Amino acid sequence: MSASAPAPSSSEIREIVGAHLHLEGALLPILHALQDAYGCIPSAAAPVIVEALNISKAELHGVITFYHDFREHPAGRHVLRICRAEACQAVGATALAEATLKKLGLDWHGTTANGAVTIEPVYCLGLCACGPAAMLDDRVVGRVDEARMSALLAEAGA
Ligand code: FES
Fold first, then answer.
1. Residue 10 in contact with residue 49, Cβ under 8 Å?
2. Alpha-carbon span 107 to 121, nearest angstrom
3. Are 98 and 106 in contact (CB under 8 A)?
4. 72 phi and psi, to 5 degrees?
5. Predicted pLDDT of residue 68
6. How many CB atoms lie within 10 A of CB 142?
């Protein structure tokens, strides 16, 4: 389950887009500004962006999906990221992630029904020597086993 998507007016979106058009490589600043404002990239923003930047919908979609931090729906109150990169995989991160998703009944990018936690994959947190690594909001945590994951989920209210 995801939090409900915001529905800003097209004039609100045009204002945000217009404020960044003068920048070189304006797309990323626009997307960041939209996500800062609404917690996600509202679906109504796509036609405004493609027109303003003269890019295709496919290009826009490609950029939004390439950068894992951009969301189509607002995240839960907390974001738990689990490292899926190689060093963490080598020490059990895949099994940890699968068990966590199963426990919560979610897929990647999903949010618990109570809106407490969104689970995201991440590809290295710089804690490779202490994997499996995870990050709850802004705090990185190493050597995450099942017990530590349960504690993180409890802390986040999942
Ligand atoms: S591979 Fe997981 S923190 Fe680097």
1. no
2. 10
3. no
4. -90, -15
5. 78
6. 16
DSSP run (H or E) holding 136: strand 134-136
Mean pLDDT of 146-150: 97
The pLDDT tens digits of the residues spanning 28-65 come to 999 999 999 998 999 999 999 999 999 999 999 999 98
CA of 72 to the centre of ligand 1 (A): 26
Q: Report percent pLDDT > 70 for the chain.
A: 97
How many Å apart are CA 150 and CA 154, to the nearest integer?
Answer: 6
CA of 95 to the centre of ligand 1 (A): 15
Contact 116, 101 (CB under 8 A): no
Please state whether beta strands 78-83 and 117-122 pair in parallel, antiparallel, or not at all (unpaired). Answer: parallel
Question: Which residue, chain included where needed, has tokens 């059990």?
Answer: 92
The model's pTM: 0.78
Give the distance (Å) from ligand 1 centre to CA of residue 139: 14
